[in-house]
Amino acid sequence: MVSNDSRRATHWPRTIGQVVITLAVYLTALLAINLLITGRAHGQAADMELTAPSRTTLASGRWSVRLGAGGLVAPVYPGSQSFVIIPAPLPDISYRAGLPMLDTIYINGRDGLGLVLWRGGPLSFGGAVGYAVGRWQNWAPRLNGLGDINPAVRGSLFLRADFGGLGFSLQGDRAFGNQNGTTVTFEASYRRRLTSRVMVIGLVGTTWADNNNMQQWFGVDPLQASNTNYAIYQPGAGFRSISASLSGVFALSSAWNVNATVGFSQLLGNAAASPIVETPTQPFGLLGLSYKF
Predict the structure, then answer these.
(1) What is the pTM of this model?
(2) What angle do CA 186, 124, 158 make, to 5 degrees?
């Protein structure tokens, strides 16, 4: 007798070329959804970790596909005291290639299109190409005259460690094109299954940003100062924020999950002192529903 998993696996492409093409289609669709519906709050949510990193348990040559959608509540921009509610896609797709220097190919809402290049014991190393959202000056009166920050491509490198329920992640992100700067984020997470249907995930993290990133998002250059009532403000490199969140996953069935996250991000140092910041404390929340194929 052929198992359900085996029958399901035959529906998916087997060769690396087919995998890359399929994932490219998924990524294009995901970016289109982001551009069409995510709007203001996604610019703030991009700096927030809504799910904890985890070690894949797939056998080589196997797919894992979970798709979902939810509602995100977040500040209009980093430092805003106003909130918006927007729909948010929740993809989590991976293919375990199991090859030397190509362990897993995946797509998720956090990283975009990523590769786990190497995995050994609890450690994994890889990179990703994602979408760095922008900021538009018509989002809030406090931004008028500062100009727009256009969306850009974001490249990432990460090193992650998974010790059962305890996980650690060190990730560097670099924006290219319309944005400038580099950030480095360290996070620690803890997963615990309370019952057969309920799992909770706690996460804490901190983000360091270089001069270019801090200037673009929190600074006021001479031209911007001449267009506004702000004085020139040139924040230097330093720790940009700390964050904490608590997530819950409730299994409605073997395929359907309800996901919920509440948390906050606290701006620090030169970022918190920026004249465009209304409040340094940035709460956020997410409620979603997903289905595993």
Answers:
(1) 0.82
(2) 40
